[in-house]
Amino acid sequence: MFKGRSTVKKFFIYGFICTGLIISDYQFDQMQRFRGWLSVAVTPVQWLVDVPQRSWTWLDERLQVRDELIAENKQLRAQTLLAERRVQKLAALTVENFRLRDLLNSSEQLDEKVIVSELIGINSDPFVHQVIINNGFNSGAFTGQPVLDATGVMGQVIFTSAYTSRVLLITDADHAIPVEVNRNGLRSVAYGLGHYDYLELQDLSDTADIEVGDTLVSSGLGLRFPKGYPVAEVIEVQHFAGQDFAKVLAKPTAALGRSRHLLLIETPQQQSLAQQEVK
User: How far apart are CA 200 and CA 189, in angstroms?
Assistant: First the structure.
């Protein structure tokens, strides 16, 4: 740094100037005003020197705020999903409460002994209309026991275990139930067609007094289903020229594809019939 005389001379000159400025600043008050002017002149340089640091601080703060906002947004989304789930659960519980009230109201109108049961499974075969309920013979269920929901007959128990039972629905192709027209007492048999929305009344004469809108109820014949429970509503009556029998279709009154809470009906006649079948 100090090669040559010129450099040495410069060193002593600058050192002398610095020493003089230090002594002057210490001895004379006017130097404070001069120092203030120098500070004003140096301020832009200080500001420029500080720009990188301030820029980094600003960027770091913004990134930190962004991370906090992202985390808060995720937390709020999670809370929103949980709140929506609770709302859905409350809505489902409200509907279930209405269904249970309907069941309780319907059970109060029955003279027979009833057991409230819950559907826990369905048969995956679309051609087999069977469901599984959470009551078995330990709860008093037995083979042949009628099963209802809040609006009508659903089917009958065909198999029982200790804690569950299998129910054959009235719409299954292998099921038939004796019915009568509630309006005039006309008796017939409603057969399942393998479709949840249809039952068919076969062997009904073409001159039979039956109309669209008639309510079909269980007739009590065969001692399987007690008399007087709603089964279906007639939705179609077709008469064919030259044929002796009419085609009658009815829609089940029970919500076969939607009901979750069911009623098992027990009468003394059914219990004695079940005991005879066991023997």
Answer: 8
Q: Is 256 left (phi over 0), alpha (psi -120 to 50) or beta?
A: alpha
Closest to 264 in 3D by CA, of 154, 190, 128: 154
Cβ partners under 8 Å of residue 169, min gap 6: 129, 130, 131, 154, 155, 175, 192, 196, 256
- Residue pair 11/2 in contact (Cβ under 8 Å)? The answer is yes
pLDDT digit string, tens, across residues 166-213: 999 999 999 999 999 988 889 999 999 999 999 999 888 888 899 999
**Which of 67, 256, 64, 46 minimizes the C-alpha distance to 147?**
256
CA separation for the pair 123, 26 (Å, rounded): 103
HSE (CB half, 13 Å, CA atoms) of 12?
4
The CATH number given to 113-278 is 2.40.10.340
Greatest mean pLDDT among 67-71, 108-112, 175-179 lies in 175-179
The model scores a pTM over 0.70: no
Amino acid at 116: V
Q: Where are the domains of the chain?
A: 1-109, 113-278
265, two tokens = 């009906």
Closest to 122 in 3D by CA, of 176, 164, 153: 164
DSSP-based helix, strand, coil % in the chain, nearest 5: 45, 25, 30
How far CA 235 is from CA of 54, 203, 250, in Å, comes to: 82, 17, 5
Q: What is the mean pLDDT of residues 57-61?
A: 74
Is the pLDDT at 69 greater than 50? The verdict is: yes
The span from the CA of 236 to the CA of 216, in Å, is 13
Residue with the two structure tokens 């042949």: 144
pLDDT at 3 over 60: no
Q: What is the mean pLDDT of residues 21-41?
A: 68
